[in-house]
From TrEMBL:
Pfam families: Yip1. It comes from the Bacteria. It comes from Albidovulum aquaemixtae. Residues 15-184 form the Yip1 domain. InterPro entries: Yip1_dom (IPR006977). This is Yip1 domain-containing protein. GO terms for cellular component: membrane. It is found in: Membrane. Keywords: Membrane, Transmembrane, Transmembrane helix. The chain crosses the membrane at residues 36-56, 76-96, 108-133, 139-160, 167-190. It is a multi-pass membrane protein.
Length: 199
């Protein structure tokens, strides 16, 4: 069974890069059980946490950003990242339905988990690039923002059968502003504040 999953995983990665909407529809058509979607969420969160912790080890002590360090903390990073993905999936599903979409939360969760898988793979590439050629790693980090938005717009369009990609992007932008505000409030409640440099 594992041998059969490996080619499927590699093929989905390739298809996501070439045709993200086709890959999203293929994932939805696979229709894994809800338990598998939650397990996938947990596993990809753990994987992202491990890569973040390894990346921090390469930084000089005390120079890592506070938020970055928090994401690498097992008792804070896991619930924060997992919670963010659940909120994102709920926002994509609910927001799309407001505009006439038909996507379900379960499928939105599946696509958000797969999006995180793709970003984690990119993060691993960035980590090795930083070790070999630091300027290339910084460039990959910058490009990751565009890759994230590109995949998210196409995944959302595939989820709700939308065809107007600029409108989808605008809707996601509004949703992200709302999510950022909510996360800022959450961080304040957790006692995490941005560092203030002395003048």
């Amino acid at each position: 069974m594992t041998a059969g999953l490996s080619p499927l995983f590699a093929d989905l990665v390739r298809q996501t890069i070439r045709n993200p909407q086709g890959a999203a529809r293929r994932l939805i058509a696979l229709d894994p059980p809800m338990e598998a979607r939650w397990i996938g969420l947990f596993l990809v969160t753990i994987l992202a946490l491990l890569i973040t912790r390894v990346a921090i080890l390469t930084m000089p002590t005390g120079t890592e950003p506070q938020f970055f360090a928090m994401l690498a903390h097992p008792w804070l990073g896991i619930p924060l990242q997992a919670g963010s993905m659940v909120v994102m999936a709920a926002g994509i599903a609910g927001g799309g339905r407001i505009f006439g979409g038909t996507g379900r939360f379960a499928d939105a969760l599946l696509l958000v988990v797969w999006l995180q898988v793709m970003l984690t793979l990119l993060q691993a590439v960035q980590f090795f690039a930083l070790l070999i050629l630091p300027p290339l790693g910084a460039l990959i980090a910058f490009a990751a923002i565009g890759v994230f938005l590109w995949f998210l717009v196409h995944f959302t369009a595939a989820l709700h059968d939308f065809t107007n990609l600029p409108l989808v992007f605008f809707g996601l932008l509004v949703g992200f502003v709302t999510l950022v505000v909510a996360l800022a409030v959450l961080l304040m409640l957790l006692g995490v504040s941005p560092p203030v440099e002395a003048v």
